[in-house]
């Protein structure tokens, strides 16, 4: 864990650049083109690239050195931003879509590679704690990125914002390159995956459909969670404007800051519980956490006064962070040679759900209220979680969750259904 904390710092710096990048680039696209359609197309290209790159990233992570892939992903994003910064004004609009492809693909590749590597970096027994630290780092980065983006762009301009973005990726790449961490099982050296490519290509679908239906259900719920997440993202500005037309940004900032605090609280709680009990929360905890998360988001849009709405956002953020940690930790029980493809699959599914939700919820908000749209999308997630929870309870209570300190996860020959 000694080096992992430095890795979390570097990942947080990179995440800060990503969130700053997200705001600055979206505003820049609109200013440079004067077209809302162009701005929407930029976001669509980035999301579509993230969906496609999930499948590609799974193959790359299974076949090549993950540390080099993460360093390369950060360097590519830095280079793309610097190219935009140095390009003449006339060709910048065209470069924007190239940048959308690079940032969408590289951010997904980096995420898949890092999540796949955690059991090898810290040991399987410490993966829950490590995932919690990553959630905390990214939550803090989100607060800093969103909070500073407006100030950086307004006070220093787009060039300074792009230069700062590029610098964060360069710092992250340098830190990761210098850290003496192993990202792959010693029994499965880099390149080994390419020798079994035909069999591995069929593994994900066969594993999910045939040997781990619970895991398949969890992946499906994450896709629906993506729909719900997009609904409250799109509905939040509309709802905030209806609450305070003169200061619509106030509730938005309160919402995201409180949500991030909830994520951090979740990391602290799950870390202490796991250390004390010696057990990793399983599928039942995932289903319960997802229910609480979706219910919290629905309550936020129910028309309550600011104080209880913010409390609901805190609960939703804590449940969101808890669910993220449990879900990622569960997927990390897969053998090292299969883990990359599994995380590539879930990255594609989650990004597809989020992208589809952005389109559908935006259209629905033309005819329905934010509460109706958010309630429908998150309500669907609650229904699926309750079905999964009922099925898990019906299957029996004989097998407990696997101990957190059990190191055998990394060596198991196949992925088996947990009974959390």
UniProtKB/TrEMBL annotation:
One GO cellular component term of this record is: plasma membrane
**InterPro entries, per the entry:** Bacilysin_exporter_BacE_put, MFS, MFS_dom, MFS_trans_sf
So where does this one cross the membrane? 7-30, 36-57, 135-154, 160-182, 203-224, 251-273, 285-304, 310-330, 342-365, 371-393
Membrane: is it a keyword of this entry? yes
Q: Where is this region: Disordered?
A: 398-420
The Major facilitator superfamily (MFS) profile domain sits at: 3-397
Gene3D superfamilies, A to Z: MFS general substrate transporter like domains
Give the subcellular location: Cell membrane
Q: Which GO-annotated molecular functions does the record name? A: transmembrane transporter activity
Record flagged with keyword Kinase: no
Note the topology in the membrane.
Answer: Multi-pass membrane protein
Q: Which UniProt keywords apply?
A: Cell membrane, Membrane, Transmembrane, Transmembrane helix
Q: Where is the composition biased (Basic and acidic residues)?
A: 407-420
PANTHER family hit by this protein = INTEGRAL MEMBRANE EFFLUX PROTEIN-RELATED (PTHR23513), STAPHYLOFERRIN A TRANSPORTER (PTHR23513:SF11)
* Protein's UniProt name: MFS family permease
Q: Native species of this protein?
A: Streptomyces luteogriseus
